[in-house]
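Hello again,

I reread your note about wanting to compare the complex against the isolated chains. To keep things tidy I'm splitting this into two emails, and this first one only covers the full assembly. Below are the input lines as submitted, including protein chains and any nucleic acid or small-molecule components. They are followed by the predicted structure of everything together. The single-chain runs will come separately.
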Amino acid sequence: MCQLLGMNCNTPTDITFSFDGFRRRGGLTDHHTDGFGIAFFEGKGVRVFRDNRPGASSPMAEAISQYQIKSLNVIAHIRKATRGDVNLENTHPFIRELWGENWVFAHNGTVEGVGVCEECHYQPIGTTDSEAAFCRIVSELKEMYPAKPSEKEIFDAVVQITSRIAEHGVFNFVLSNGHWMIARCTTNLHYVCRKAPFGKALRDDDVSIDFSQYTKITDKVTIIATQPLTKNENWTKMKNGGYVFFKDGDVVYEIEGTLPEAQPHV
Amino acid sequence: MCQLLGMNCNTPTDITFSFDGFRRRGGLTDHHTDGFGIAFFEGKGVRVFRDNRPGASSPMAEAISQYQIKSLNVIAHIRKATRGDVNLENTHPFIRELWGENWVFAHNGTVEGVGVCEECHYQPIGTTDSEAAFCRIVSELKEMYPAKPSEKEIFDAVVQITSRIAEHGVFNFVLSNGHWMIARCTTNLHYVCRKAPFGKALRDDDVSIDFSQYTKITDKVTIIATQPLTKNENWTKMKNGGYVFFKDGDVVYEIEGTLPEAQPHV
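Full-complex prediction:
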């Protein structure tokens, strides 16, 4: 199983503390060793780094940690391959241009029978079920809305399209266009919204940070992760069929999730 | 004016020697200081690095040089902004998925009145004439050929579409899908095909390399650049309206260019 990491904030934030703990799971504290990828939005542009070496030992991941890029929206993924070869084109996150914006997507789980739709607007480049599902999402959105609709309409449409895909497997994902982030859960997805008063956080590898030294009182930073990255914060566990639409570090729209608890996907 | 660099080979090749000389023009030996970008194909995937800092002093460019990535197709660009702000989404090379492939494009010059076609398949994310022109190319290709045609048909269609765009300005570009590379010239574009017997090359900043120490007898490496990067090799200067389709380091299709010599673009 792969692991997801997302960040959505109201001020450009350095994700290093979370990313360092997260990427240790790629080979050190866990077994997700088939590559990693991370996308940082910067204005309408996006910086993407991918490596098919384990996150924990990749020199690319090391350089990223040292670069301390600040961003409002970040999506990262470490991979344990279940479908598709271990190569660059199969490494999350995936990106497509939709309505003149970069859309970025990463998935954890396996969905069956999405298939390649040859008449669709967007075609997969690699061979993963995840990229095929993402192409289906953006193709259907473009079909439904040739011009960009409101954020609420986007959220509703994403829920509609992805609920159908999720019937065929485990569909935990994070999706962002650089303005907002949508998180969707089948089995495992957690989030924590950090805001004032900021305190200390203790990572699962026992590294700690005092956020109050790095933040302003108005800052809001939401971190989304497959498993909580800190031991002493109040992470919300999402339910099966749950969706959250985050913007500026806040929950804007939410569907709590009413499906029976999904079986863990091994 | 910006500068272009392309590489097309029959064996994965490290572009460091050429890239190092090229990026020195971003701030050291020339004045292209408004960012740089480089895309390395790796299988069907593509690794892209962009920075809006000058190529010569960017830590990102430094890391790339040290990483010594080997690739069959590379496109790089250093920018002196003429249209569009200096930011990440306006930094070449631009990428879109077409027929399930990554298409990568970088442009030197300025083309007028391409405009944004709102019904078109592909929309620009930034505000450059270059990205608008690229979106026009891939949109028209997809319109002409819903499924991927032969390489000759692609070359002919690219010539047809881009000759029309080139009527409205200076349109030097390199374009690749990871299998081949098309170069198109209005004012300045040169190439050199390196093959056995390999000798020494002397860069314009007087750094030299002996390619015979790094190559096999069957290797073919073509370098395309706005201006020749070495002093002692036989670079072919392309003519106004000229096109070359390179594959595996060889010229496969060529249109010599019959238009009157274009005025230098300042």
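For quick reference: Chain B touches chain A at residues 42-48, 50, 59-60, 63, 67, 87-91, 96-97, 99-102, 116, 118-119, 121-126, 146-147 (CB under 8 Å).

B.
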